[in-house]
Amino acid sequence: MGRLIEKWFGFSQIREELEARIGELENENTELLREREYLAAETSELKDANNQLRQKNDKLFITKDNLTKANTELYRERNDLAREKENLNNQLNASQKQVKELEQSQQVLKNEKAELSKEKENLTKANTDLKTENDRLNHQVIALNNEQGSLKQERARLQE
């Protein structure tokens, strides 16, 4: 009789509609639960991926810091090498200047040596000429001494 009353008062149609709606809601709820599980799994995967990316990012920051330190060290070394190069260039320039001065000094000495050699040659020639003249004069002195001796003898003979 309960169904009869439901039919007369239209409750059966409402009940059917409500049962249909409940079925739809249960299906929708099941679908939402599946979607929630899927999203939970996807969220977990995304969290894992995010953690991995954070770890990689941390490693990259460490690598970046190390590279920055290495780069700073390389800049310092480059500056040190530039200073050393400048010092070596200054030393090279000073050495080249000294070499030029020594070459000029050597040329002056060669010129002086050539002049002294000429002067020595001229003095040697003059010395030879003087020796020859001295020998000639010595012969003349000997001849004059002999003549003087002869003249003294002749004078002594004449005075006798």
UniProtKB/TrEMBL annotation:
**What domain of life?**
Bacteria
Q: Which UniProt keywords apply?
A: Coiled coil
Q: Which residues form a coiled coil?
A: 15-154
- Spell out the protein name for this chain: Homeobox associated leucine zipper family protein
Organism, as annotated: Helicobacter pylori Hp A-11
